[in-house]
Every structure is written in structure tokens, then in C-alpha cells.
Amino acid sequence: MTKRLPRLVLDTNVYISAFLFGGNADKCLDLAREGEINLIISSEILLELAEKLSGKFFWTEKDIVKVIRRIGDLATMVQPKQKLECALAGKADYLVTGDKKHLLVLKSFQGIKIINPAELLAISS
Fold this sequence. Notes:
With 125 residues, this protein is an alpha/beta fold.
């Protein structure tokens, strides 16, 4: 019997941390690259990521497109726009975020655990 891989949504701040700083956020993406987890994403998350990378971090359009394509190769696209809706539609086990103010305080949402990157790495090891 094949083990069911955890399904999860990474919040925009996790992608930004991965691309700019590495660390635990990048290790979360490594889990997807290595086939240890199934990533779920929505167009809204990708749009928010593109806006933050260009506006706040001054990335070029070319670099943003490259990153979006890399994510697209790793993730399953779902229609709902907001992160919690995306997690529900994708039947996610986890929503991984660094947002302490709005999301981590919830701890879970309709059976979906809301955790930070370090917690995901602890679960996956």
C-alpha cells in the first residue's frame, strides 16, 4: 500500500522566505521537490507572491515568471482564491505560514492544521 503524501498550502510569506532567505521555508519547498509532500496553490497566492516580489523586493518580471513556473511545476492548482479556501478545496492536511497575527493563532481550520515551516519539518523528519 502506498503512503498518502501530506497535502499542504504554503502561505505567500513562506515562499518569500524560501526565495530570499532560505532556511526552514526553503526546506519546505525541498520536501515538495523530493516528492515528500503535495503542494496546493491558487492563482490568488501566485498573484500575491508576484506583487510582493516586484513591489516590496524589486524583483524583475523575468525572475518572477521563473519562480512562478517553478512553483507551478511542483504544485496542484485549485480555483479558490484565499489561502483557507485553497486549503479546503485542495483537501490539504496543513496550511504552512509564518503569519502569527492572522493564521497561526487559529491553529486549525475545518480540520486543516495551521503550522509554521519548522513544525512541518519536524513532522516530515
